[in-house]
Design brief:
Layout lengths: L6 E2 L1 H7 L6 H9 L14 E2 H11 L8
Antiparallel strand pairs: 1-2
């Protein structure tokens, strides 16, 4: 059964990303379905594993240039 540590609020994600990404941007990712989330009440909840996958999939690699 999932624990509270398995779920993150928008504020938790903001903290986890070092406060470098505005909370409005995080909400935008959720609303645009880029970041999967659930909304059982008023607040969005994101599974930690979904955030980890989102971050991994969003990584960019430097161009291979001489």
């Amino acid at each position: 059964m999932p624990t509270n540590e398995d779920w993150l609020t928008v504020e938790d994600i903001y903290e986890a990303l070092g406060k470098r990404v505005p909370m409005d941007t995080i909400r935008s990712w959720i609303r645009s379905k880029k970041l999967p989330a659930y909304k059982p009440g008023r607040a969005y909840l994101v599974k930690r594993e979904d955030l980890d996958k989102f971050i991994k999939d969003s990584r960019t690699m430097p161009d291979d240039q001489p």
